[in-house]
Amino acid sequence: MSSEHVHAPQRRSPQAPYTPVAGALRAVETFLLGSGQQTARRNAWAAVVADRQRARDRREAEYEMAALTSTQRGGASQPL
Q1: Residue 1: per-residue pLDDT
Q2: Which has the least CB within 10 A, 11, 40, 53, 58?
Q3: Is residue 31 part of a domain?
Q4: What residues in the chain have per-residue pLDDT under 50?
Q5: How many domains are there within the chain?
C-alpha cells in the first residue's frame, strides 16, 4: 500500500483565483515586503475589487431603471 497523502483542494475566494504564478508572486511578496506592507497591498486590492463590484451593480441598476421607465412611458400607463 502506498504512503501517499491525498490533500483536499484548498478553497480560494472568488476574487483571487489560484494560479502557480499567483503563488509564486505571493512567495516573492512575502520575502520582499514586511507584513504591514503586505496587509496594505491586500487591503488596497480588496478596495479595488469592491469598487469594481459597486460599479457593475450601479450599471445594472441604471439599466433596469431605464428599462422600467421606458416601459412605463411607451406602454399604457399603469398605476404605481
Answers
A1: 46
A2: 11
A3: yes
A4: 1-2, 5-6, 8
A5: 1
Q: Is residue 1 situated within a structural domain?
A: no
- Identify whether 3 is part of a domain: no
φ, ψ (nearest 5 deg) of residue 4: -70, 140
Give the pLDDT of residue 77.
Answer: 53
HEC string of 18-75 equals CCHHHHHHHHHHHHHCCHHHHHHHHHHHHHHHHHHHHHHHHHHHHHHHHHHHHHHHHC
35, 29 contact by CB (below 8 A): no
Distance, CA of 26 to CA of 22 (rounded, Å): 6
pTM given for the model: 0.48
pLDDT score at 28: 82
> Which residues form the domain of 50?
20-73
